[in-house]
Write a structure and sequence with these properties.
The protein is an alpha/beta fold and 532 residues long. It contains 15 helices and 14 strands. The strands form four sheets. Strands 4-5-7-10-11-12-13-14 form an eight-stranded parallel barrel, surrounded by six helices. A hairpin with a 5-residue loop joins strand 8 and strand 9. Helix 10 packs across helix 11 and helix 13 crosses helix 15. The longest helix has 29 residues. GO terms for molecular function: beta-amylase activity.
């Protein structure tokens, strides 16, 4: 294996790093296939001051913006770099703290095991630094495509797909035998199913290469590492896949615990784990598979024997199965986060993990959609307290979605309550003393959605909020004005540092251009919209 190419920055003390002093110039990529270390950086605006876990100093909440899913595309290159530079400058002018980007496993390790291509992400980090913004980087060990909002297709690395083809039981499987290639099944976390390495080892090696490559940026430009733990990067099972019409809202979804019973060498997958748990409970018959009466993806709770008002979920068997199913998910999250904690300890970058906002059927007793996703949350049991406690043990921030939703906006027949769900998760985070951050689940540009986020951030004490997502619509006149007002409300009128005085990307958007305009935020957005 070759030496990693390292993106280096000048040595500086903690105070200098916090103020992000001028960076050393340099060019080149970051490709872990044997090249010598290279120096990244360039003239940069000073990023804003930061409190713990990405929160502004003071009482406001820092706002980040998700970059497009294909910002670094399947070939490992930054897509439309000039348009991106214009967009970053516009976001900076609007008071945004930073941006979030998916670091796709299927892009970085596409050429083979331990052959990492960080070049495109190295270019992106330098662009963000020059714009005076900060970065939240997501270790995306899942595929892109087939879910809500997926605008492109980025599969897992080809060599991983080959392993799936030869051994299909390493992916999640439902009761009918349908395989889901979005993410490797947690049932084989500790099995050497990936060219002699376990998935946990593969994830650890990937994160270690990332750390070594971007060490000089961690804790200053790169302030947060969000660790992907499942489909869409969320700690959950793929219980509601939209691909090919398998599921549609507000279906209950299906349990995903039907991959192989016993591996060739006797090491066990999920069904074998269930058998062991059932035998330990004194009911071997419970280990034959998941519930027989749990229905299908698109059904409602009352249409099933398991999820109806007084169904099987509230029996001794139901408690056993749901405890095992959710416990397996928690163990998976803990294993991956333990690996991330070991890799990023001492770098200055915060760790976070995303929990899905499954708000439909929340008003029912069984909370069916949450149960199939792996959250053992019912009218009788708090399913988010164990999640928060696990994250607290690993020092990870709990990042929760659906912060923009209001109960009154949801369809009555779906039994939704995103507001109650957010309150429950907030309480769980407080009890566990774990940091809480948020996202919106769907693209929204209206004042009502922004007002809901502001209110939630104030009551929940969000450390940061990441807005989904940067696109041309965001920079349209009315949408942009609403967004800038929202950012100012979130940050409580916090001081916005100056833009860079030079334009190294020839985007015609920096200070020399903006100072000629009476409304720089609007002009920056208009210019960005013209090229995005």
């Amino acid at each position: 294996r070759g030496r990693a190419a390292v993106l280096r920055r000048p040595h500086a003390g903690a105070g200098e790093r916090r103020q992000a002093a001028a960076r050393q110039g340099g060019a080149g990529g970051a490709r872990d296939d044997g090249g010598d270390g290279v120096t990244g950086g360039g003239d940069a605006a000073a990023p804003r001051g930061r409190g713990g876990q990405g929160q502004r100093l003071g009482k406001g909440t820092a706002v980040y913006v998700m970059l497009p899913l294909e910002t670094v595309g399947a070939g490992g290159k930054v897509a439309r770099a000039r348009a991106l530079a214009a967009s970053l400058a516009a976001l900076r002018s609007g008071g945004v703290e930073g941006v979030m980007v998916d670091v796709w496993w299927g892009v970085v390790e596409r050429e083979g095991p331990r052959r990492y291509d960080w070049e495109g992400y190295g270019e992106l980090v330098r662009m963000v630094e020059r714009a005076g913004l900060r970065l939240q980087m997501v270790m995306s060990f899942h595929q892109c495509g087939g879910n809500v909002g997926d605008s492109c297709n980025i599969p897992l690395p080809g060599w991983v797909l080959e392993e799936m083809k030869s051994n299909p039981d390493i992916v999640y499987t439902d009761r009918s035998g349908r395989r889901n290639p979005e993410y490797i099944s947690l049932g084989c976390d500790t099995l050497p199913v990936l060219k002699g390495r376990t998935p946990i080892q593969v994830y650890s090696d990937y994160m270690r290469s990332f750390r070594d490559t971007f060490r000089g940026y961690l804790g200053n430009t790169i302030v947060e590492i969000q660790v992907g733990l499942g489909p869409c990067g969320e700690l959950r099972y793929p219980s509601y896949p939209e691909a090919n019409g398998t599921w549609r809202f507000p279906g209950i979804g299906e349990f995903q615990c039907y991959d192989k019973m016993v591996w060739l060498i006797g090491v066990q997958y999920m069904r074998a784990s269930l058998q062991q748990a059932a035998a330990a409970a004194g009911h071997e018959e419970w280990g034959r598979g998941g519930p027989h009466d749990a229905g299908e993806y698109k059904q409602f709770p009352e249409e099933t024997g398991f999820f109806r008002r007084d169904g099987t979920w509230c029996t001794e068997y139901g408690d056993f199965f749901l405890g095992w199913y959710s416990g397996m998910l928690l163990e998976h999250g803990d294993r991956v986060l333990a690996a991330a904690e070991a890799v990023f300890r001492g770098t200055g970058a915060a760790l976070s993990a995303k929990v899905a906002g499954i708000h439909w059927h929340y008003r029912t007793r069984s909370h069916a959609a949450e149960l199939t996703a792996g959250y053992y949350n019912t009218r009788r049991r708090d399913g988010y307290a164990p999640v928060a406690a696990m994250l607290a043990r690993r020092g990870a921030v709990l990042n929760f979605t659906c912060m923009e939703m209001r109960d009154e906006q949801q369809p009555e027949h779906a039994g939704c309550s995103p507001e109650q769900l957010v309150r429950q998760v907030r309480s769980a985070a407080r009890a566990a003393r774990v940091g809480l951050a948020g996202e919106n689940a769907l693209e929204r540009y209206d004042e009502a959605a922004f007002a809901q986020v502001v209110a939630t951030a104030a009551s929940a004490g969000l450390g940061a909020f990441t807005y989904l997502r940067m696109n041309k619509k965001l920079f349209d006149g009315d949408n942009w004005r609403q967004f800038v007002s929202f950012v100012r409300a979130m940050t409580d009128g916090g001081e916005r540092a100056a833009l860079p005085s030079c334009d190294t990307e020839q985007s015609d958007l920096y200070v020399g251009f903006l100072e000629k305009r009476a409304a720089p935020e609007a002009e920056a957005a208009a210019a960005a919209a013209a090229v995005v």
